[in-house]
Write a structure and sequence with these properties.
Elements (H helix, E strand, L loop, with lengths): L10 E5 L2 H10 L1 E8 L2 E8 L2 E7 L4 H13 L5 E10 L9 E9 L20 E3 L2 H18 L12 E8 L7 H13 L6 E3 L2 H11 L2 E10 L9 H22 L6
Parallel strand pairs: 1-4, 1-5, 5-10, 6-8, 8-9
Antiparallel strand pairs: 2-3, 3-4, 5-9, 6-7, 6-10
Helix pairs in contact: 1-6, 2-5, 3-6
Length: 259
């Protein structure tokens, strides 16, 4: 269902962790909580836009169900995903933001029936994000980082926005050996990911099936190597959640509002 009397499409904002959602929830006006499929969703308004806030939870299966509920039950017209990821490509460093252009499942292998990474019966391995929504999200991220890096903690100094492929899989990549092997395998098949996480590809596929616009951003919390577990909770609370709140603020302000 959509919010009563709403004249605008419902924007769903997905977060993987509660810490990433906290700042947005604090700003939500007219908040209404609804529980569907064992998940709590919050409906209300942010910057004049009707929104639904949800937690994807961790992993592709959980994220798939959450996205399907947002579209099928709440009639979300667009989904935006915020969260953290491990940096893979050279030059993608801690504190940077990666805005996804498309997603691939790095742990999908139905060979020899289908080529490695190809989603069976789809004829493709990568699912693109919506071009227009991604452009707005990229612009919002640039605006926030340009301002934030002047005043925020030193870890954010020189933070940059990147756009490109993100790889998703049901494991936390936390060693240099695994990170290198993942990159080599994907690049050998013609895919060069900027970052790795655990949910985005699933949501991208659901949105493609429903014809719903999808965009995603990930704050780089680590380099997906042997230091990936260090101070992760602190980074999510102090950095990633702040990025998510400010970038979503900028994005929502750029969307049409009632006249």
């Amino acid at each position: 269902m959509k919010l009563a009397n709403s004249r605008l499409p419902l924007t769903a904002i997905l977060s993987a962790l509660p810490e990433e959602q906290h700042g947005l929830l604090e700003q939500l006006k007219g908040a209404q909580k609804q529980t569907v499929a064992g998940r709590d969703f919050w409906l209300g308004q942010l910057h004049g836009q009707p929104v639904a806030l949800g937690l994807s939870r961790i992993g592709k299966v959980s994220a798939t169900l959450t996205a399907a509920v947002l579209i099928g039950h709440f009639a979300a017209s667009r989904i935006v995903f915020t969260g953290v990821a491990g940096g893979l490509a050279q030059g993608v460093k801690v504190g940077d933001v990666v805005v996804a252009e498309d997603f691939i499942q790095h742990d999908l292998d139905a060979s020899p029936l289908f080529p490695r990474y190809e989603v069976p019966l789809y004829g493709r391995s990568r699912f693109p994000c919506d071009l227009a929504l991604t452009a707005l999200l990229t612009l919002a991220a640039h605006r926030v980082l340009t301002t934030s890096t002047q005043t925020a903690s030193p870890i954010l100094a020189g933070a940059q926005v990147h756009r490109g492929l993100i790889a998703s899989g049901d494991r936390f990549v936390s060693s240099a050996t695994e990170s290198s092997a993942l990159q080599s395998a994907l690049q050998g098949a013609g895919h060069t990911p900027l970052a790795v996480e655990m949910e985005g590809a699933a949501v991208a596929q659901v949105c493609a099936d429903y014809g719903v616009a999808f965009a995603a951003m990930r704050t780089i919390s680590d380099r997906a190597d042997d230091t990936a577990h260090i101070d992760f909770p602190t980074f999510v609370t102090d950095v990633a959640s702040l990025y998510a709140q400010r970038i979503m603020d900028e994005l929502l302000r750029s969307l049409p509002v009632p006249t």
